[in-house]
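Run Lipocalin-like domain-containing protein through structure prediction, thanks.
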Amino acid sequence: MKPVLPAVILLALLSACRGDPVPPDTREAVAFATDPRILRGVWTAQLALGAGDPTSLTLDLTATYHSESSYTVAGRSTLAGQTSAVEGFVNGSYQHRYLQAQLSPVPAGLWLRFPDSPNVTITCPAVRQTGSDVRWTCRYLQGMAATDFTLTRGTP
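Sure, done. The structure for Lipocalin-like domain-containing protein is below.
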């Protein structure tokens, strides 16, 4: 009976270590170099700042792969005729997989800051795509004032 007891204990220990199966990976991979949702190039919007006519916003951005879950953007912005530097990052969230450095997350959130205007930021929590038409739902924040707008690819 003694030789059986260690075998039973070993079997109990081994069966307890089996762990849960890994669920299938359903995250989407995006080609960083070619996907139209990647924020690079010229993007435009009309912002209703105050009671006046809408003001044009133009972003000319360069995107740089950063990690499996984000990339950075930097460039120039023009708002109401004033040009300034802009920089920020795009977060891909946890819903996407990244196969190689050439691939990037589907954008799930954008945050931009203006180094020359520390109290101004742009946040874009949602992006949607219909064919080649890509639109970001955004908010322009200046101090406590907020304006919602849609950012689209290309010149106005």
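Confidence is low (pLDDT under 50) at residues 96-100.
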